[in-house]
Structure formats: structure tokens, C-alpha cells
Amino acid sequence: MVDVTALRRQTGVQLCLDCGKCSALCPLAGFDGFSAAGVVTIRDDGARLARLAVPVQRCLTCGYCELRCPQGVHFTDFVMGLRAGLSDDLAAPCPHGQVLQTAARLEIDAAGSRDLSWLDDDLAVAEKGEIALFVGCLPLFDALFESTLGVRTLDIARAAIRALNGLGIEPVLVAEERCCGHDLLWSGDRDGFVAHAEANAASFRERGVERILTTCAECCRTWRLDYPDAVPEYRPKVEHIVEFLDERLGTGDLHFGTEPEEAVVTYQDPCRLGRQLGVVEAPRHLLDSLPGVDLVEMSRCGWEAACCGTAGFLHCDADSRRLQAERLGEAGATGAETLLTACPKCLVHFACAQAEDRRRGRSSPPIEVQDFTVFTAARLAAATSPEARERTETLT
Amino acid sequence: MTDRSVAASVLSPEPGALPIRPIAPAPCTVACPAGVNVKAYVSLIAERRLTEALAVIRRRCPLPSVCGRVCHAPCEAACVRTDHDAPLAIRALKRFVADAAPVVAPRPAPDRDQRVAVIGSGPAGITAAYDLRLLGYHVTVFEAEDDSGGMLRHGIASYRLPPDVLDAELEVLWQTGIELRTGHRIASYDQLEGLLREGYDAVLLAVGAQRGRRVGIPGEDTLAGVEDALAFLRRVNDGDRTPVNGRVLVIGGGSTAIEAARTAVRLGASSVEVLYRRSKREMPAGIEEVKGAAAEGIEFRFLLSPVRAVGQHGRVAGIECLEVRLGKPDANGRPRPVPIPGTEHVVPADLVLAAVGQEVDLDMIPDSLATGMIADDRLRADHKSLMTRMWGVFGAGDAVTGPATVIEAIAAGHRAAESIRGYLERGFPHRPTPGPAALVERELPDPPPARSPRIEPGTAPLRAGAEFAEVEQPYDVDAALAEAARCLRCGPCEECVVCAPGCDRRHLLISDARAPWVLRVPSGFATGLPGLPAGTLPLRVELHERRCRGCGLCVDVCPFDAFSLDDPERADSRVLLDETRCRGCGLCVPVCPTAALEVTGMSREWWQRRLDEIFAEHESVGQVTLTCTGCAGPDDRADVIRFRCVGQVDAGMLLELWRRGAGTVAVGGCGDTGCRFGPGAVLAGEQVAIARTMLRMFGADAERITVDPGARAPVLTGRGEGG
User: Cβ separation of B690 and A144 shorter than 8 Å?
Assistant: First the structure.
């Protein structure tokens, strides 16, 4: 049950002019009859919602439509709200056997401590402190995708910690961490999401954390934009690690190795980081400052970066595949050897598309997809200046 | 509702497995008295799979080289092409493959204790002996003559059935371990009874109808030169090549008459005539034989009835005949010859061969038993159990039916073996109930095939120096393939199981005691077959096309190649599901990343309902077992969830069980080598590994999910069923 009238007001949908600009931009427009403008006509959670259940679920929630909407309609939030009104028989199951979503819920019920044995011996973390690294579901992705795609998502966490260590920071790792709840929220399970938010807020707060860094665009958006409503009493500063590193770049604390490693790269702005959080410049500053690294932009970049085809692990179909192929094509057209992305989901989705091409013997742009943090951290020098350490301690 | 009821399959000994019964066999197969799968072997010949074709024939016909030469081929008469252009030359095809393909001799089953005596080594006796030997019984064949084969050896001319061909054919059968005692006549009742006293557990009288019937005219027995045609053939076949001088007259219209006539030609007769009391149309002999006879100069005189033999100096000079006309039909449906008075005349002859029928030699049956044992001059046997009035003594073949054909004798031999086997297993006669009648509707396909002539096998003309050489020539390979290619393969699968030995999808075929060959069909067929209860769900997978991403993982995992990519080059290609191949095993369900696949009747909704059932009463449940329909164990326990195959289980389901409150989850299955669907158990193991890894990450006890892919589902109630 969802009060669609209230939702329409909250998200500004009632201001829609029916101009159709959203559909003009929408990457799914016209495929299997998808219509953003059509979804906007849903006024209650009755028959029309039921009839439009499929488009409501297919929406990528990439927010492309919001770029040009003259009325500032928050279409993606509207879809998120509508999904809460879909009954069980209308709700489509999540991909990969819903194992990730089930695991997330199980973690709440099981209430155990996470296994931290993935930490390499040289990585320093703290039990309590101000700055924490939110690892999120990186260990779960490893369990699913390392063997099938060769993607090691825990390397992202390791790289982040290594980079932070190099800056003199021992981030807190909260063993009672749970999934941020992004997929639960976006699939309409508001209650499940709130349970996650509350659990996480409690655990982090208990450790004295006031600043949370994350390597995942979606976790970042969720903590920053969606947690405040759910857990208003806990308001840490939440940043994607690219923002943090960009700051440090600004304060001169970042040192890169003096041996330039030549690389031509292009950069995929994750929907949740770029369009939804506005973090577009930070990664570019960083890439500019990496010696030997040449950034060649794709034709659709920054605010207009194209979605990787799937938000979270919510929905996947032939359109996702098509979007991945298009985006990889665009990346390949830049001539870059490496496609960097600041979200592990984008990483996995692109890697999946490439693995499929290999398996089916299709030609595929010969570009390697890599996580931004891993790429950057590898080029950061281990040295830290005493000034840097001092500056860290005064940050709140 | 148990899981089994979700996919009911009434015809099957195993849930979800649907055997094909030959519900509509091809007309040729139905027509064969011995049940040879004609369509199967002709089709195999057309595909040049000759060894397999011969193996199919040999399942029901142990004498293919013989039948390929002498069978009267009711299959050809039933061939659908008969009214269209011409029937397939099936007999010639059988001969071709019998000569061309190597025999793969089957091995008998392990020896059983019981012993069977078969009296008579003709086609009925041989067939019964062979069948029983292959079942493992100890079999002794008693043959009165010095050589075996019965009428095959003595009653069929060697230009039709060369003795060395017969020898080779029989040798294969003897090699299975049948004890053959030639020159051993069972001549008296004492000897017959003696067999039973000696320790034979059953006796089969298959003595045939080998005595030529007398014509019944004066002078027949007193004049020299009037001979029984069968006796004549017998001595010629035995090697007597005494030339025949002068004119030969053969009385009769069947194969024996023709063969006797053609043999007389070969022995140098100056003229040979065949005298038959009806017209050409009623002649029992086959058209080819009659044509062959005419080609060798034999003349036919129809509508003449012999009255008496006339002679001089004790020697026959001719047969006095009356002209007849055809009157009303007799009891057999054939027109009765009605004599025309005043038309007597003598047909001159130097040798008269009488071929007017055969009788059974029942001398061994004493008069005191005659009433029970003999009826209509034939051995009397129960038509269902084939047992005679003597307990443990059975009768089959011409001895019971009167003279018939080779293939009918073979069919009788099969029935006798089956009856005897039933008797030996139970101790009393086995009276089988007949199965349902086969539907035989047979029409030409629409549009009908182009007309093409029947390719006849060649014939070698009679030539001096090799008079008794075989007349009919075998096909060469091209001709055989071309003729076999005319076969329209009427009807659906006939469970000939030729596919079995080479089938690498072993899960398509089960051999079990109840149904020796159960061919599982792709379940898409299930709902189309008659006799299934309404609402039977086909066990197959449903593809939600909308969700398909075209990743092709299902294509890779499906053991039945049911999936294909519609356009692999395109980035947004989707998968196509061939429902006729899909077996509903569900191995594709966990590999599909986009939840586009579900097993009918075992959908996600079904899964949730099962979980609700299990956890409804209790917040925590000790153990939940996930297993498959192939594993033993009780069905009615709520905490056992049966899938078609455990390969349908994915990590998400395992975690969900835990989340709902399962203490432990046991994943059973048929193991790596026993899984009916190939990799099912292995895939389940992989999913368990993923689930366990995730549990370890949460700091939970991963060992609470156990996998036992080798053992069948654990014995849960102590009922002792362990797979």
C-alpha cells in the first residue's frame, strides 16, 4: 500500500507538464513499450499501477530524465515509492536468485560479526575512531563473481584501506556492518531498508564514527540521501572515497609515485555518484593529477554519463545488455585501454557483459574495466608527510 | 498436496518420467505377426545404420536371412504406399541387411536352474528355444531328423533358401548355448512323459505340420510316379539330384507346389505344369514365385480338379481331371470349386507331385489321450497359455494351428517362450491379458510424396551347371538405400530404443524391471498424449522472455540442448526455448541471472508456499531437506522439499531457508554419476559453496548447510527406504 497522491506531491510529479522530454532522454524509451511519461500518469496504487508494474520495475532509476525536466520532477524517487506499492505477485524477482538481497536480510536477522580475514597483513584498521570505511557488500560480490567474472571486489576495499593508510589514516572497520540497504529500498521494501539503516547507524555510532568513507556510489548515495530520513539522529559525514582523495589532493597530502605509469583511461560516472550526488569533478581532478595518465572522455560523460544498465542488482534483461554493449562501445571508441568506474556495480555489470561476449564469441571492445580506487591507490606513494597526519586529526 | 502430484504422469513408473508407448505404430509393424519393428529397421537402413537395423530385426525375428528370402511379408501388404505407388520391398530390404550387416549376438542372462525341452527345430521351436535361452533357462532341442531347421530345411527349395544360409543363421542361435540333439525322435508318449520325469520343467511340442496330405484320389498310392511334393523336395534338398524325365504335373497352388515345379525344371523335366482347382486369383503362392515359375517355362492349368490317377504297368501316365467353376465361398471364405459334369479328360504326366496341404504328425499321442490332446487333426493347446492337456507340456506353431507361414511360426515361438517363462516363474499356466489395441490409422502425408517405383531385387536366370543357385539376388547398397528412402516413417516414436546404446543422455532412458525400456519424453509432449488426467502439468521450464538477457548461460548448462540464442551476434539477443526438448529439470533456473526461468509447477510462488508450510507452525525447524524426485524417501513430510533435480537449488534459496528459521539444511541428490540430468548434483554443490561462503562472511556457521551428493536423500522416518 502506498499513498500515491502524497508521493506525487513529495516527488513533484504532480507538476509534470507532459512535455515528453523525459522520454526523449530515457535510455529505455520505446523498448518493449517503456515510457517514463506513462509511469508518471500513475495516480494510485490500483489498476494502473498493476498494469504498469513492468515499466515501474524496469526503470533504471538512472535519473537521466531528471536532467532536462523543466519542472524538476524527481522521477527516480517516484519510482522508488511506487515500487513499495507493488504486491508480491507483481514484483519481479531480483536477479541472481535474489541471493544478495536475501543475504542482506539474513545479515540483519543473523546479527553476527563479519569475517574480516580478507584484510591483508599490511593493512591497518581500527576498532574505534572517527573515520570509518564502509565496506558494504564487497565480500558478497566476491563470493558470487570472483569465479565467474574474475572480478575481485574485495580488492577495492583493500586498495581503499591501503590508500588511507598511506595518508596516515587507520580507518575503522565495523565488524557489525550490514548491507546499506540500497537494493531493499529501491525494490520497495522500505521496512527492510529502515532495519538496515537503524542497524548500521547503531553499530557505527557505537564505534564513535563521525565520518564514513565508501568505495561504492550506491552506498554513498544511500547513506547520504536516504539514511537521514530513516535515522535522523545519526548524521555522520558521508563521502565517496574519490571525494575524500580529491580533498586531500587539494590540501597537498596526496603523493603519487614519481615513476609515471602511462595509461590512457576513460571514466564512467556512476548514476548514483554523478547525477544523483553531483560528484563529477572530483574523480577528474584526481585523474588529471596522476602522472602519465591521460583521460579521454566518452561522448556522454559527467552529468550526462550513460547508465551501466542496472541499478544495484535489482533488475536485468536484454535492455541492460544492450546498454552495457553501447557503453562499452563508447568506451572503446575513446581509444582508452582502461575504463574506470567508481562503483563496484558498474564494474560487475560491465565485466559481466564482457564475459558474455567472450563466452558467445562476440567481438567486444578490448578495454579493461577497473575500479577507480584500485587504479588510483596503486599509483599513490606510500609516503605521508607529518603535516598530512596532523591535518587528518583535526578534521571532523 | 505432495510435490509429486504437481507433475502427475500416469503412464510412468517414475514421477515425471513419461514413457512413450507405441500408441500408433506404423501399419507395417502392426502387420508383422512376430512384432518386428519394421519401421525402425527400414528407417535405419535408409540412414545406412545397417548393424543397428539388423539388431532391431533380431529382437523379434531370430531368422532374418531366412525371412528375408521366404517371408510372405504381410508388412508389405499393409504398407501405406500400396495404393499410392507400390509398397516398399521390405522383405528384400531385410534380406539385404541380414546378408550385409554383422550379427551382434546377445549374451544370455545368467543361468537359471530350470530346464526346458523343445521338440522340433523348425522356426517355432527355434524361436522359443532362443528366447528361453536368452532368459537364462537351460534349453535342449530334440530334432528327429539328422539336421535342424524343420520345414526350413526340408520344405523350402534351396534355390529359394540356400542350405548354407540356413546353417549360418542357425549357428548363431546354437551358439547361445542351446543343446541340440539331432536324430532324436520323440516318437511315443512314454518318451514324451519321460522328458518330464527326467527333470525337464517344461516341454514344448513344436513339431510342425510336415506331412504332405494325400490328394485322396484312386491310384495315388498304387501307381509309381505319384509322389508327395514335400517328400520330393526333402530328398532333393538332401542332395538327391536324380534327373526327372518327361512331363511333370504338380497338383496344388501354394508355395510347395511352385517350388516342387521349379525344382522339377531344374532336374531336367521336359515340361512342368501346375494344376490348380481354383483360379489364379485364389492361388496361395506369392506373385513373385508364380512369375518366377512362369519365367522358367512352367505352365498353369486352372479350374481343374483331379479325379484319379491313371497309369500303365503300375506307373502313372496322367491325371484324369474335371473342369470346375467357382461357386459359393467355403468356411475359409474361398470359392468352392463346383465340378462341371462331362468335362473329364486326362492330363498326361510322367511324374505327379501332390502339393495339396500339410498335416501334423501326432503319432506320438496315444488314442487314450487323443480327445484331450488333439482337435481337428492338430495339437490342442489353450489359446492363451499354450499349455496342452498334459501339465507342463506346451504346443506352438503349425502343430497347433495347422500349416501357416514362417513368420507366424516365429510369432508362435515367442508366445510359447513367454508362456513357458510365466509358467516356470509361477508354477501354473500364465494367461496373459492382451494389451490395448493399437490405433492404426494410416494415411499418406499431405501433400503426398511423389510417386516412385518400387525397386525390385534382381533375379538370376536359371542356368545350366548352377541350377540350384539362388534365384533372387540381393540389393546393392545404393538400391537398398534408395528403396528404404521411400519409407514414409508413418507414426510417432515406436520405442524401438535404437537410440539407447549410443545415447549419451543416459537420463533419457531407464531400464527397470517394471518397464524394461522407459523412454522419457520431453515433457512438452506430456499434455498432448491421450489418457492423462485433466490439469496434468507438463514438467518443463517456462521462459519469461521479457526478462531474458541473452547471456546464454542456460544454453551452456542445459543437458538437453533445449535453449538456443536467437541471434547471437546482436547485443540484445534473447534465448529461445524448445519445449519439446525441455525436461523440466530446472538446472537452468539458478544459472539464469535475470530470473527469467521457472519450472512449471515449481515456481517461486510454489517455493514460497512450501516455505510457509514448513515454517507456519514453528519459528524454527530442525532440518529441512532438499532433494529430488529421483531419490527415495517419504513424500509427505513437510520438511522435505523435492525438486525435479537438486540442480534447481540456488544459493539464495539456501539462505532464505536459514533466514526463515531452518536449523540445518541438507541437500541430497543422486550424486555425480547417478544424476539423471547430468550435472545436477555438481551444480547444487556449487550453490551450496556460495551460500556457505556468504554465511562465513557473516560469521555464521556455514556447516549448517550440508551436502550429500552421493547418498540418496537420508532415511528420515526409519522406513528403511534408502535409494
Answer: yes
